[in-house]
Amino acid sequence: MTIFVLLGPMVIQSFAQDTSPSPSPSPIPSPTLTPETSPTPLVSPSPISPVFTPPESTILNPTPQEVGGQGTAEVPRIDSGNAAWMLICSALVLLMTPGLAFFYGGLVRSRNVLNTMMMSFMTMAIVGVIWILWGYSLAFAPNSIAPGAIPPYETSPILGSLNWAFLRDVAFNQPDPIGYAPTIPHQLFMIYQMMFAIIAPAIISGAIVERVSFKAYFWFIILWSTFIYSPLVHWVWGKGWLETMGVLDFAGGTVIHISSGVSALVAAWVLGARKTYPHQTNAPHNIPYALLGIALLWFGWLGLNGGRALASGELATVAIVATTAAAAAGGLTWSIMEWVLKGKPSTIGIASGFLAGLVSITPAAGYVTPMGALLIGSIACFGCFWAVNWRVKWKFDDSLDTFSIFGVGGTIGTILTGFFATKEVNSAGSDGLLYGNPGLIISQFGGVIATVIFAAVGTLIIWKLLGLVMPLRVKPVAEDEGLDINEHGEEGYGEEFISQLTLGND
């Protein structure tokens, strides 16, 4: 497996180049700018850039020839409208992690609600620090900067460097020198990407709740974010090998959902099932919490997908419309399937359908039409529905169906992007199979396979190493009593405190 991960970039890239049209030579045009800020043509940006030629407004120290023979160099400028949009999107994406905490927290037993929610909130603390210290640099930093050259950087196809560690040379008043987001401050791009990095490991917790040691989970977040998440980001969005071979992942189908879903599956297998599973059914203790959680997730998801346009304008509109369409289609599909097969549509079912639609549209949001988004949300929801039911029949304890929704939904959405993507929506992307380009399917499959293998093998190694130095599970008695008391010394609803107070009065 390790050999495949190391050699896969060259093999798959070579195969994809032989079977698919070459990507556009300049696939990341400048985001929409106002006439006052730049003379750059009005073209929406894309996060995919097999080959990047920086726009005039982002060239650092250009020669006189590069500025039309003028003797003065053009300084990169920040568009205040785009910056305002990205500030809002950053806040929206951060809100998704508390939304996930409520969604997961409502689905577990009351004795574990705090521990379950704490696992999501802890990622906000841990990743918020390590992303600034080294995570962002490993994901996006080039090996070297060469002002005036085209492209003005040198980078590795496998991993970023530590040149931007501790946010060194990450300016608050200038765009990044690579061209990731040429009209917003570099630190704003960094903080927006931080929100993605926070929610990815939080998703994994849903598969191992009610039994994992909080200490083991704490260290797992640090290791997984560093050695799994940051390299994947570099592969797909940081001028890495998957980006070069033309894989389309608009906002995290591979980077977030497939990686976290597969990692959740491996984690659940390593830790084993809960003591009571499958003999005792653990019903959700607070379904309104779960509904509140999915509402916050949907709201934040508009920033997740809309913000990947990296500017306010046409592409952000395309992404938000597609996100809403797919979520609605997913919720409707799941409810109809439950109605037909089980006789009643459930509230957990419609929430799961919304989530499946949101997950599946994430890689495609900036590349498909509204009708394509409806189809992706519905098809992926169908697949996730059956994955949940198969998981129950196999009696595999993925506690909150993390793999069945995030892993399966992300995989289906990434592959379907290869069918429904069209340059009519985003000229910086690629046409898919339905628009005459079957080669994109090969690229998408290659991205899925590489992500699955890397995430699965890496996660297995991390858990095995942690198991050598600490227990991965809580003790059986702690599992019976609940992890809130045993791991945090608290209860979600004060039941223990109330009982002691009553006994004292007697």
From TrEMBL:
<keyword id="KW-0472">Membrane</keyword>
<dbReference type="InterPro" id="IPR024041">
    <property type="entry name" value="NH4_transpt_AmtB-like_dom"/>
</dbReference>
<feature type="transmembrane region" description="Helical">
    <location>
        <begin position="283"/>
        <end position="303"/>
    </location>
</feature>
<feature type="transmembrane region" description="Helical">
    <location>
        <begin position="371"/>
        <end position="390"/>
    </location>
</feature>
<feature type="region of interest" description="Disordered">
    <location>
        <begin position="16"/>
        <end position="47"/>
    </location>
</feature>
<feature type="transmembrane region" description="Helical">
    <location>
        <begin position="315"/>
        <end position="336"/>
    </location>
</feature>
<dbReference type="Pfam" id="PF00909">
    <property type="entry name" value="Ammonium_transp"/>
</dbReference>
<feature type="transmembrane region" description="Helical">
    <location>
        <begin position="116"/>
        <end position="134"/>
    </location>
</feature>
<feature type="transmembrane region" description="Helical">
    <location>
        <begin position="189"/>
        <end position="209"/>
    </location>
</feature>
<dbReference type="InterPro" id="IPR029020">
    <property type="entry name" value="Ammonium/urea_transptr"/>
</dbReference>
<dbReference type="InterPro" id="IPR018047">
    <property type="entry name" value="Ammonium_transpt_CS"/>
</dbReference>
<keyword id="KW-0812">Transmembrane</keyword>
<feature type="transmembrane region" description="Helical">
    <location>
        <begin position="441"/>
        <end position="463"/>
    </location>
</feature>
<protein>
    <recommendedName>
        <fullName>Ammonium transporter</fullName>
    </recommendedName>
</protein>
<feature type="transmembrane region" description="Helical">
    <location>
        <begin position="83"/>
        <end position="104"/>
    </location>
</feature>
<keyword id="KW-1133">Transmembrane helix</keyword>
<feature type="compositionally biased region" description="Pro residues">
    <location>
        <begin position="22"/>
        <end position="32"/>
    </location>
</feature>
<feature type="transmembrane region" description="Helical">
    <location>
        <begin position="402"/>
        <end position="421"/>
    </location>
</feature>
<feature type="transmembrane region" description="Helical">
    <location>
        <begin position="216"/>
        <end position="238"/>
    </location>
</feature>
<comment type="similarity">
    <text>Belongs to the ammonia transporter channel (TC 1.A.11.2) family.</text>
</comment>
<feature type="domain" description="Ammonium transporter AmtB-like">
    <location>
        <begin position="84"/>
        <end position="493"/>
    </location>
</feature>
<feature type="transmembrane region" description="Helical">
    <location>
        <begin position="348"/>
        <end position="365"/>
    </location>
</feature>
<keyword id="KW-0924">Ammonia transport</keyword>
<keyword id="KW-0813">Transport</keyword>
<feature type="transmembrane region" description="Helical">
    <location>
        <begin position="250"/>
        <end position="271"/>
    </location>
</feature>
<dbReference type="InterPro" id="IPR001905">
    <property type="entry name" value="Ammonium_transpt"/>
</dbReference>
